Amino acid sequence: MSLKGFGGFVYTLFGVFILSTLWVTSLTILSARPNATAMLADAGANLLNPFLVGHGDLGLSQTTYTRLEASARAHPSQPITLPVLKVRVLGREIVGKSYAGVVELVYSRVAEGYYDGGTAAVFDVPSQLQAVLPNFALFNPNNIPLVPGGPTPAQLPVFLQPFVTFVGLTPDTLTAAGHQKILNLLPWFWIALVALGVLAVLLNHSEQKLMGLAKGTMHGAWPVVAILLLLWVLSLFFSKPFMPYIGMLGLISRAFLPVYGTAFAVGLIGVIMTRVLASRNTSGDTKAKQDEAVKIPESIAANTAHALR
Fold this sequence. Notes:
Elements: H1 3-30, H2 33-53, H3 62-74, H4 91-94, H5 99-117, H6 127-130, H7 161-166, H8 176-203, H9 209-237, H10 239-242, H11 246-308
């Protein structure tokens, strides 16, 4: 491979690492405790609970709520008993709350328990639910059951596990342990990205070396920005289908958009500034050549006049 070809390969690798580094950075923000628990609570209340209610009334249904509320009034100091879920909620904490308020409270406790201790800390799955649980083999490099007693997916190949881990496709991504794993990976991505950027500049001897970095940054960021903006627009026009996902979409956007949006803006500004500077340099060179072209005839005329004298 020629030096020029190797330089092109480095620029391509830089673009790939831009996308990866921005993703890991955003995922680190999303998996931090405040964001992760908020997302888990929203997913639990709007997705998991309806799923559980629809499979043998295992979730917190209106009927279950009425029974729990009556029991809570009678025994306010005792924990309420919830099917499937192992979380501590005292009776007095739900007395006077609406059904939606109780669901929100319960799944906020589920989110906190899951973040701290994983699935075993919050789920107690009966046999009738195990059969309908999906198989998450592709997203489970550590071979962890989705819930205790649930299906155990096949182990992913070892060489795929780091990739699946940093892209966040594991059951423990939104846990304290998962957050720490991603946090430990993050500095290495930034170190590799900076090293590739420096190497790309050193290998490129043309005047467009910075343009390549700016374009790589811009193109590595805009797809995610475009997808999030598209989802936001779709949620405005199709509000009913998107309703269960609005809260999660907002949390994801607040974690990803600042990172990718900043990178896109930096790349775009870099491209514009590089082109402006290149245009000025070209104009300056053209003007210098024009001035030189004018000076030559003037010099000839002056020499001719001197000779005639």
